[in-house]
Amino acid sequence: MEIREVKADKKRYLPLLLLADEQEDMIDRYLDRGTMYVLDDGGVKAECIVTDEGGGVLELKSLAVTPEAQGRGYGRQMVAFIAAQYAGTFTCLQVGTGDSPLTVPFYERCGFRRHHVVPRFFLDHYDHPIIEAGVQLVDMIYLQMPLA
After folding, report:
1. Under a CB-based contact definition with an 8 Å cutoff, are residues 60 and 94 in contact?
2. CATH code of the domain made up of 2-146
3. Which of 29, 71, 77, 87 has its CA 20 to 30 A from that of 110?
4. 107: which strand partners?
5. d(CA 135, CA 60)
6. What is the pLDDT of residues 114-136, one digit of tens each?
7. Torsion-angle region of residue 138: left (phi > 0), alpha (psi -120 to 50) or beta?
């Protein structure tokens, strides 16, 4: 298994990016300013993008695992890699996600804690309803973990 930075042609991973954020123009807002990583284990299994949000905050903007590789620990390995890679450079790692019964518990198991909410984010920024695990996403839930 190898995690490597992607420096060019990030859009070649668009099908995987769209698993994490299903509206391409939202991805375009952070793709070029973010640092992208892919996890390769006999083929690309996961990707993530991180952005410097200022004030010591590193944001995980996109984390996706291919459907056939989900549930095998690749997402957790990506989070652990990012936390280790940026420890000492940033004070905290932050992620924003919908209030989904799948996603929020995953991040909490990775060590994130709820920090704040942006009301109506998904209603105001997406051109269609975003449904995850049968739940329409409305508010953006931000979670943070300290980086030592």
Report:
1. yes
2. 3.40.630.30
3. 29
4. none
5. 22
6. 999 999 999 999 999 999 889 99
7. alpha
Q: Cα separation of 65 and 58, whole Å? A: 20
Distance of alpha carbon 121 from alpha carbon 143, whole angstroms: 15
Residue 64's H or E segment, with its range, is strand 57-65
Q: Cβ distance 22 to 30 under 8 Å?
A: no
Beta-bridged to residue 62, according to DSSP, are: 49
Asked if 58 contacts 86 with a C-beta cutoff of 8 angstroms, the reply is yes
Q: Measured between alpha carbons, how far is 44 from 126 in angstroms, rounded to an integer?
A: 28
pTM over 0.85: yes
Nearest to 37 by CA among 57, 18, 65: 65
3-state secondary structure of 127: coil
Question: How far is the C-alpha of 61 from the C-alpha of 35, rounded, in Å?
Answer: 10
Burial profile 4-19: b = 16 or more Cβ within 10 angstroms, e = fewer: eeeeeebeebeebbeb
pLDDT in tens, 13-71: 999 999 999 899 999 999 999 999 999 999 999 999 999 999 999 999 999 999 999 99
